Automatic annotation (TrEMBL):
Name the record gives this protein: Uncharacterized protein
Length: 718
């Protein structure tokens, strides 16, 4: 790409597609086109900066990163402003520190803001879009070029403009040097007038150039000397013609740069009026071309976007069709292959047309083609508008179809995924169930085999049992016969027993009659015995009566006296017993003399110290029998302490059969006689034990809490 006009012609040719449905432009070409435009803008900017600051020597094909590096310190930006309006920005010596660079950039941006020019952000200069920076500087360039020309024109044509009129926007600080301050104000005024000037250039409607004038323009472009030497008539002739319209943009830029460089080299900043007019005309032409091409590029860009969207939608449709059923996939694949083939052919065609167009690039024919292309461009524009509307409608419909198909496809995919999940779940469940059933079948099979074996064993057992049952049956038959024989034998024996029982019964009957006869005979014999027994009881009662009468005759109250022996520790000398008789006891009274020195006492019987317990009880025993015959008997001992009462009645401690006292012996006799009379008499025996002490009678057997002292609640009297 050598110039803007070249781009214009080339791109217009490329955008002429065969029809709206199959345009042969790919996305890579669109991006290349954009990059080429941006590269062109960068080249214009670099040329402009190199013109202002020749010492920089920026390469014409500078890349974004390098341009960013050169501008990021802000020093170059401030230098550009100072070059356009000297002293507008105060810049210190170049300092590589970040703060100094940021300060320089801020100064530049503030100045741009004061001038009402578009500016960028510091971040754009550091890592953002360099395009924003380039556009800003190109705007500054365009403004400065156009309005400086206007200023020059107005300055040269009318020297009456007041130097005091400019705004004080650039006077950030009061200057101590009046001349310098006045100079700054003058340039600020010029710049402000520049900003107030027309921005858009008037479109050129010139007809095709005539050949002689074009030759003059070529001469101007190829001028090696000073532009100031150009005659006013020549410039006027160029201005009046439309030769500038057909001139290459690069040539126009070279013309402008040449005039500006010459003006700078002359250092007085003055540009002849005619050159200023020429410059303005050239700049207007350049701006018109830039504007036209920008609009054209925007249109093409939109067209490319529409076609891109269309292709994207078609690709999506084909992808959707490809992801559908197998047949649709094959059809979509074939269509996609066909489309790719078409695209390849179109690309080849496009490359071929590019080659043809490049070969047909001729500087002489280019001017003619531009006018033709303009008309074609208009036609193409209309066609493109029409196609775009059609494509937009088709794209909209296709987008809706695609959206609907995609939605359907999504629904189908969701349904398929859901069905797949259900199928997987069912398969897993089926497999699990199959495994369970297999396991159950295996276990059932094993169980059946086990049961079959058991049944076989049972059948074997049953067969064995059947055999044994048969043998048992035979045994039972044999036993039955044996039992039958036994029963027959027993029946015969029973018959014999019956016969025997009859004979025995007869014998018993005979025995009974004999027994009754004997009983009668015994009764007859027993009667004298009964009479004798009755007589015996009478005799016995008489005997008891006589016995008790004897006892009464002996005396109802009998007093016996027992003299105990000396016990260990007692001295025999001190005994007062002088004589012990059968019924008499004589004791001495040492306090008396004469016949009163001895006293004699009479008793039923007197027992001496050597008398045994048996001898004492022998005189008491008859009273025990009287008790059982119904007489009241009382036996009690009387005497002073230690005289031997307890010994006589109970016996000593650890008494033996020989030494037992009267009480034990009386009870033994009592129960003995009672036992002998059991067949004839019934007795009830009760026991009461009392104590008489200090004329108080106490019941010693009461344990129920009732008072022990006499009178007692119940005294059993037998
Ligand atoms: N006939 C006897 N032969 C041998 N020892 C006897 C005889 N009579 C009593 N004694 C002895 O004399 C002591 C006193 O006897 P015992 O306790 O019977 O007297 P007591 O009259 O019951 O006295 P208390 O009135 O004080 O109870 C006892 O040691 C007892 O063994």
């Amino acid at each position: 790409m050598n110039s803007l006009s070249d781009n214009h012609g080339t791109d217009s040719g490329e955008l002429d597609s065969e029809d709206g449905s199959s345009c042969g432009i790919n996305m890579g070409h669109i991006f290349n086109f954009r990059n080429e435009v941006e590269a062109t803008h960068r080249m214009i900017l670099v040329q402009w900066i190199n013109g202002l600051l020749p010492s920089l020597c920026l390469p014409i094909n500078i890349m974004d990163d390098e341009l960013r590096a050169r501008l990021s310190n802000g020093y170059v930006l401030c230098q550009i402003l100072n070059k356009l309006v000297p002293g507008s920005v105060s810049v210190d010596d170049f300092d590589n520190s970040v703060s100094s660079q940021t300060e320089n950039v801020n100064k530049f941006l503030k100045t741009m803001d004061r001038l009402g020019l578009p500016h960028f952000k510091i971040s754009d200069l550091q890592k953002g879009s360099i395009k924003v920076v380039v556009d800003c500087l190109l705007t500054l360039r365009a403004k400065s070029l156009q309005n400086c020309l206007v200023d020059k024109i107005s300055t040269s044509s009318s020297k009456s403009e007041s130097p005091r009129s400019p705004s004080r926007i650039f006077c950030s600080s009061p200057s101590k040097e009046p001349k310098e301050d006045q100079k700054k104000l003058s340039f600020a005024s010029k710049f402000q007038r520049v900003l107030r000037g027309p921005v858009t250039s008037e479109p050129s409607a010139a007809p095709a150039p005539t050949h002689p004038v074009d030759q003059k323009v070529q001469d101007v472009f190829q001028l090696k000397g000073s532009y100031a030497d150009l005659s006013a008539a020549k410039i006027s002739e160029i201005m009046k013609s439309n030769s500038l319209d057909n001139a290459p943009t690069q040539s126009l830029l070279s013309l402008v740069n040449g005039i500006l460089e010459e003006s700078i080299e002359r250092k007085n900043g003055d540009i002849p009026h005619r050159l200023a007019c020429l410059l303005r005309r050239v700049v207007q032409e350049i701006e018109r071309r830039v504007s036209t091409q920008t609009e054209h590029l925007r249109t093409q860009n939109n067209l490319f976007k529409a076609r891109e969207e269309k292709y994207q939608s078609r690709i999506k449709v084909l992808d959707a069709l490809a992801s559908g059923t197998k047949e649709e996939s094959e059809i979509g694949t074939s269509q996609l292959q066909q489309l790719k083939t078409d695209k390849t052919e179109e690309e080849e065609k496009k490359k071929a047309s590019e080659d043809v167009i490049r070969l047909m690039k001729d500087q002489e024919e280019k001017n003619m083609e531009i006018s033709t292309l303009k008309q074609e461009l208009e036609t193409t524009k209309k066609l493109y508008e029409l196609q775009r509307s059609q494509l937009e409608a088709a794209a909209k419909g296709a987008a809706e179809d695609v959206a609907r198909m995609m939605k359907d496809q999504d629904d189908k995919n969701e349904e398929i995924s859901r069905l797949k999940q259900e199928l997987e779940t069912t398969i897993k469940t089926y497999e699990l169930r199959c495994s369970q059933l297999e396991a159950e079948a295996k276990s059932a099979k094993l169980e059946l085999e086990h049961k079959s074996k058991e049944y076989n064993h049972l059948i074997e057992d049953l067969r064995n049992k059947e055999a044994s049952s048969e043998s048992k049956y035979q045994n039972w038959i044999m036993k039955k016969r044996q039992y039958q024989n036994v029963v027959d034998f027993q029946f015969r024996s029973l018959q014999q027993l019956k016969v025997l029982w009859g004979s025995i019964k007869q014998d018993i009957t005979q025995g009974q009659s004999i027994y009754s006869e004997e009983c009668n005979r015994l009764g007859v014999n027993l009667k004298p015995l009964v009479d004798a027994t009755e007589k015996y009881h009478v005799v016995l009662a008489e005997n008891r009566r006589l016995f008790n009468e004897v006892q009464e005759l002996k005396g109802n109250i009998r007093v016996y006296c027992r003299i105990r022996p000396f016990i260990s520790g007692q001295k025999e000398k001190r005994s007062i017993v002088e004589h012990i008789g059968e019924n008499e006891l004589v004791v001495a009274n040492p306090s008396r003399q004469g016949k009163d020195a001895f006293r004699s006492f009479k008793f039923n019987k007197v027992y001496g110290p050597a008398t045994t317990q048996v001898e004492v009880y022998s005189d008491i025993q008859p009273f025990v029998r009287s008790v059982l015959d119904g007489y009241n008997v009382c036996i009690f001992a009387y005497g002073q302490t230690g005289s031997g009462k307890t010994y006589t009645m109970s016996g000593p401690n650890n008494a033996t059969t020989e030494t037992l006292g009267v009480n034990y012996r009386a009870l033994n006799d009592l129960f003995s006689i009672l036992k002998s009379r059991t067949s004839t008499f019934s007795y009830e025996i009760g026991v009461q034990m009392v104590e008489i002490y200090n004329e108080q009678v106490r019941d010693l057997l009461l344990t129920d809490g009732s008072p022990r002292k006499y009178p007692f609640p119940r005294i059993m009297a037998n």
